Amino acid sequence: MASIAAFLTFRAVIAISGNEGNFLTTFEWNPAGKPPVFGIAVLLYGTVISSIIAMVIAVPIAVGIALFISHYAPRKLAAPLAYVVDLLAAVPSIIYGIWGALFLVPYLDGLNSWLDTYFGWTVIFAKTEIGAARNLFTVGILLAIMILPIITSVSREVFLQVPKMNEEAALALGATRWEVIRMSVLPFGRSGVISASMLGLGRALGETMAVATVLSPSFLLSGHLLDAGGGTFAQNIAAKFDEANEYGRDALIASGLVLFILTLLVNGAARLIIARRKEYSGANA
């Protein structure tokens, strides 16, 4: 990891030192220009917003599915469901991307119109352009579908590790099944769910092919999630790397360094949260 960080930093310094724009705030990507001007503002916004949308959608649904498989579904149903979830986690990104472009985008046109009609007053769901749903909102939904099996699989395994004695004791005291889950299963599995969520977030932050297939990229920053455009770090690198000159590739590597740092910060924060919860609960590290 140290060698990767050193390589990214070295190439990023070369790019940033020749940049005539502000690397963090410029809304343009033209490292081949004279003078070269490029910035990551749009890419950072698109990466973070699409990942947040994905997490908001995926985490509650994944936890619900994991609880159903581990504590509600009969064995004859739980085993096939778990198998299907595991299979979905192994589907290649490009397959999700093709499905998203050919099915999800046309389907979400109607949803976008509905959101604009009834929730356009919130600004974020106001649609100011006419066109297909190739926007960050669609990307967020597609990413949610992609990370849902990952979070579900890990959470299910965590919930199955809850000591049966704890559940039986709660049931013996007259607790309902939901009360057992709320007071025993969820507290026990909280750290595992956080870990599962961070795994999903890591995939969402770095997803490339599915995003590139669905999104109509641009370097226009808009607070309207339903307007086409935007971009992410991984999508921008994949789209421009082959055609970029040497300096342009350094610029793309500089944006990759930001994604690398962002991923490290997310995982570091997750480990800190888990460690603090273990310390608070008295669990062994």
Automatic annotation (TrEMBL):
Q: Which GO terms describe its cellular component?
A: plasma membrane
Query: Could you confirm whether the keyword DNA-binding appears in this record?
Result: no
**GO BP term, pick one:** phosphate ion transport
The chain positions of domain ABC transmembrane type-1 read 44-270
Q: What is the protein's membrane topology class?
A: Multi-pass membrane protein
Q: Which residues form a coiled coil?
A: none
Which regions span the lipid bilayer?
Answer: 39-69, 81-105, 136-155, 192-215, 251-274
InterPro entries, alphabetically? Answer: MetI-like, MetI-like_sf, Phosphate_PstC, Phosphate_Transport_Permease
Report the locations given in the UniProt record. Cell membrane
**Origin, by domain of life?**
Bacteria
Q: Report keywords, A-Z.
A: Cell membrane, Membrane, Phosphate transport, Transmembrane, Transmembrane helix, Transport
* One of the Pfam families matching this protein, by short name: BPD_transp_1
Molecular function as annotated in GO: phosphate transmembrane transporter activity
PANTHER family from the xrefs?
A: PHOSPHATE TRANSPORT SYSTEM PERMEASE PROTEIN PST, PHOSPHATE TRANSPORT SYSTEM PERMEASE PROTEIN PSTC
Q: Which family does it belong to?
A: Belongs to the binding-protein-dependent transport system permease family. CysTW subfamily.
Describe the function of this protein. Answer: Part of the binding-protein-dependent transport system for phosphate; probably responsible for the translocation of the substrate across the membrane.
Q: What is this protein called?
A: Phosphate transport system permease protein
The record lists the organism as Streptomyces finlayi
